[in-house]
Amino acid sequence: MRITESTKRLEAYTPGEQPKSKAVIKLNTNENPYPPSPKCAKTLASFDLDRLRRYPDPVFMALREEIAKITGAKTENVFVGNGSDEILSLSAKAFVENNEIIASLNPSYSLYKTLAAIRDVEWAGSPIGGKIRIPENSSLFLWTNPNAPTGELAKPQDIALFARNFKGVVIVDEAYADFAKVNCMSLATAPKNKNIIVMRTLSKSYSLAGLRVGFCIGPKDLIEALYKIKDSYNVDAIAQSVALAALKDRAYHKKTVSKVIKTRKFFTKELVKRGWDVIPSEANFVFAKPPKGSAADIFAALKKKNIFVRYFPGELTGGRLRITIGTDEEMTRLLKALDSIACS
Length: 344
Ligand SMILES: Cc1ncc(COP(=O)(O)O)c(C=O)c1O
Known about the structure:
Layout: H1 5-9, E1 25-26, H2 38-45, H3 61-71, E2 78-81, H4 84-94, E3 101-106, H5 111-119, E4 122-127, E5 138-144, H6 156-164, E6 169-173, H7 185-189, E7 196-201, E8 214-217, H8 220-229, H9 237-248, H10 250-273, E9 277-278, E10 285-289, H11 295-304, E11 307-308, E12 321-324, H12 328-340
Parallel strand pairs: 1-11, 3-4, 3-5, 5-6, 6-7
Antiparallel strand pairs: 2-8, 7-8, 9-10, 10-12
Helix pairs in contact: 2-9, 3-9, 4-5, 4-8, 10-12
The structure holds pyridoxal-5'-phosphate.
Residues 30, 83-85, 109, 144, 148, 173, 175, 201, 203, 209, 214 line the site of pyridoxal-5'-phosphate.
């Protein structure tokens, strides 16, 4: 029995805590506080179990057709993953040689660094703001937009300019783009762009984190590379059906997204009133610095009150808390709790 050296060295990714108790106000993993579209429930209720005797469509054509409609892409430019995390993992295999580097903004989605470690290559982070600075032999750049955990939104033209001068593949990770005022989808569908992939997930704006469906759009050769190396049946039959129902219900999606944005505005205003420094967010969370007390202490005090937010220790992130936008009621309860622990 032998475990590779890189696996032995690996510091595994730590996902946000998933509490067992329903009493917890859970604002730590950027999930959606509203249920998925009622069309998903209908699809599940009428799902013919006999279909599970058979393998699912390995190339999820019905889903791709719907995604193509939404994004303006051709189906040959669409790939679907078992969550967008799977797409990231496949990309680390398909677009990076053993001596090359995976790069991203820093701070950003902390899984990127772990993916590089799993792939046994280096990761490099570029400071946010100003020109991107990364090593010459970087071959995959993961640009989270809006960024996580900061919530900041980069301009599509700045990402396009960066990609033009980058020799590798740029994946714009748009996990939170449905909550933002602009997105980069037109960069992925423009035939002149040869190295830009735009990735989305159903985990956030569609309230389907438990289903595990993400997708990406990009140039045909890059998308074909992902199909080549994926597991044969990476998206199960139930996930394909439920995801399709969610994508088709555009009106419900729009309504849910606008509720979250409205609550984000209300909550940001309330935090600012209390003296917090809140980075203007285009996502379904805010990254905020308390006027007094340490972020770590407030995180712990909230946890005692059954309110979970996210704290990322470290020089770049340790001064702030990342707080997912829940319902108005949840955010009001959080504000009350913050007032009672006297950090404002
Ligand atoms: C920036 C970013 N990308 C990707 C993901 C993963 O999404 P999925 O649930 O589709 O794997 C997350 C989840 O938190 C995220 O924050």
